[in-house]
Amino acid sequence: MNRNNASSPRTEIGIKTKTSSSVSHSYERQDRLVAATDVLGKKWHLVILDLLQTSGPLGFCDLESAIDGISAKVLSDSLCALESKGLVDRTVLSERPVRVEYSLTIDGHRFQPIIATIRNDFDGLDWIDAERPVSSDRCD
Questions:
Q1: Which terminal CB of the chain, N or C, has fewer other CB atoms within 10 Å?
Q2: Is residue 58 classed as helix, strand or coil in its secondary structure?
Q3: How many alpha carbons fall within 13 Å on the CB side of residue 107?
Q4: What are the pLDDT digits (tens) for 74-93?
Q5: Which GO terms describe its molecular function (predicted)?
Q6: Domains with residue ranges and CATH for the chain
């Protein structure tokens, strides 16, 4: 093969390489999914986003009392992570005593269709229904 030719033997026979546009596009899609999963995959993140969507801005204690089973440390860490991702805004309302309020940013509101889909369309799935234990026969 002529070295001056820009195409490689792999692309000449139709084998996609990492530099081909379709594979590059696939990597970009994977990156987006991994980034979204970083938010969606955390146990309390969607609950916090949903609560701020439905209730509006809330203080830390309001969030903590509204979310059954979350510790103050986990809530604090989750809010910090969501704030660093640009999904939650933290506003200091008063210095003494310190009072902060959390609200959704525009990007935080973009998760609502995903949350609504999970809440509405996944109804009745055994693995998501907390009332029915799922048989683990196949996992043993």
A1: C
A2: strand
A3: 10
A4: 999 999 999 999 999 999 99
A5: DNA binding
A6: 43-123 (1.10.10.10)
CA distances (Å), origin 3, targets 6, 7, 18, 20, 77 = 8, 9, 20, 19, 55
Element (DSSP H or E) covering residue 88: strand 88-94
Q: What pLDDT was estimated at residue 88?
A: 97
Is 10 strand, coil or helix?
Answer: helix
> Is there a contact between 83 and 90 (Cβ–Cβ < 8 Å)?
yes
Residue 45 is encoded by which pair of tokens? 């993140």
Q: Give the tokens for residue 62.
A: 């309001």
Residue 51: per-residue pLDDT: 96
| Residue 12: CB atoms within 10 Å | 10
Q: Above pLDDT 70, what percent of the chain?
A: 71
pLDDT given for residue 132 in this prediction: 46
If one compares 49 and 5, the residue with the highest pLDDT of the two is 49
